Amino acid sequence: MKKLIYLITMVIAFSGCTNDFEETNTNPYQISGESLKQDFNHVGAFYSSMLSQIFGNQVDHNLTNVTFAQHLATPTPFVGGVNNTTYYIRWNGYWAREYNNVMAPAKQVIDIAAADGYDVFVEWANLIRIVSMSRVTTYYGPILYTNYGSTGSALYDSEETLYNAFFSDLDRIISVFSANTDYVGLTNFDASYGGDVSKWAKYANSLRLQLAMRISKVAPDVAKTQGEKAMADPVGLIETNADNFNISLYGVKFHPAQICFEWGDTRMSATMESILIGYKDNRIAPFFDPVTDMSLVTDHPDYPYKGIRNGAELVAKDDRLSFSTIDISFNDPAKVTKRKVMSADEVFFIKAEAALRGWSGAGDAQANYEAGVRASFELWGAGGVDAYLADNTSLPIDYNDPVAAGAVNDFVNQITTTVAWDEAASNEIKLEKIITQKWIAAYTNEMEAWVDYRRTGYPKLPPVYQNSSNADWGVIPDGEAIKRMPFVNTEREGNAAGVADATAKLGGPDEIGTRLWWDTGGPNF
């Protein structure tokens, strides 16, 4: 009997203990799931990592679109000088970077945020998806977007379908942002705009304008409708540098500075030398550093900067390490803490082109052109903009490679337009002025500069000196430029049916010489 009473007593006691077992054994220093929800950390923690991946690294950014746009060039003869920069594809990593680090986590965070009713977080992630994929498509053409994450066949969107989907998604995103301008949930996670939803709306609207202009030659009616919608939307556009969309570097050194100063693999381009020195452009000083060896610049000693021709014939890396680096300030993480994605100058230049194309709400072409130049000079702290805009005589200079023997790597400038606006000029000449200035202002964000060059033919960039293209990836005729990157091998091998369908939508072989949808090759007007 005593044993039975003892057992009953122990059961009651144990039951009492286990009733509050979870409470008494919870780590008081551990953040609970409920606490994470209250602070939005369970969704907000995703965004910095997604945004930090928008720009690629050396091999899928610096040695692809940056060199294709001819802002920077390498002194290094990678793989015997036969590589992406000379039109033989060795590196093709941007696809994996964006799908693994943006599209995949965006899908996850959208599902979580939607389940909790956080509409602004949902659309913020959707906007980042468009930022990423609107850049990826400039490499490849058809890509996975509307079908991403589906359980069926992984078929790519045609470019026409893709852009229509972008515009439709931007409608919804801008609507949600516009209705929630006082929302503060983004604040702790937003290193770009400090949680200001109205500024995200303004950027989304500016992105619509950018994408509209991108397709202006292939789908002029759609482009005009979308461009006019952007310019009429009350949320506004990015038209001051205070509203620029920049991505934080999150304490990491500006990657081109690492490439330049730690690895010695990037320098000023010869095209930048030609254009900036020829136009007497004061932005050259905040962009680049002078050479330390004046024997390199005997052709223009008053402007001691020297660049490397893109696609140059290179023998040894050391030959051109003494050429102009990017400005040393880029090497200081305390000074350079962010990287621009869209700035006011770009918006003004798009509006200037829109005016030439007769889009309502664009305003005056000259006023927008000059406002774009002024915004860029202001952004970089350069002086002398009034004299610059009035210069109707200066032209880019011919390029001389002081290291190579004979005329190897030299080129003759093909640009015949001055900086000063000429209202009596043809729309074609006006467009060349606009896109040339837009190209200069795109420094540190070269993606759209490569787009504009393919779309319009401006600026008149020199062809690569060494063209290593062949049947492996497609042949680029001498004097012409690369048009796209081929679909990646992981997709070719793991999604052969999808790549075959995408190639059919591309409208040409999966090669580097096949034009993308918006790159018509036809006249600009």
From TrEMBL:
PROSITE patterns: PROKAR_LIPOPROTEIN
Annotated coiled-coil segments of the chain: none
Protein name as catalogued: SusD/RagB-like outer membrane lipoprotein
Cross-referenced Pfam families: SusD-like (PF12741)
Gene3D superfamilies linked to this entry: 1.25.40.390
Lineage: Bacteria, Pseudomonadati, Bacteroidota, Flavobacteriia, Flavobacteriales
Entry annotated with the keyword Lipoprotein: yes
Sorted UniProt keywords: Lipoprotein
Record has Lipoprotein as a keyword: yes
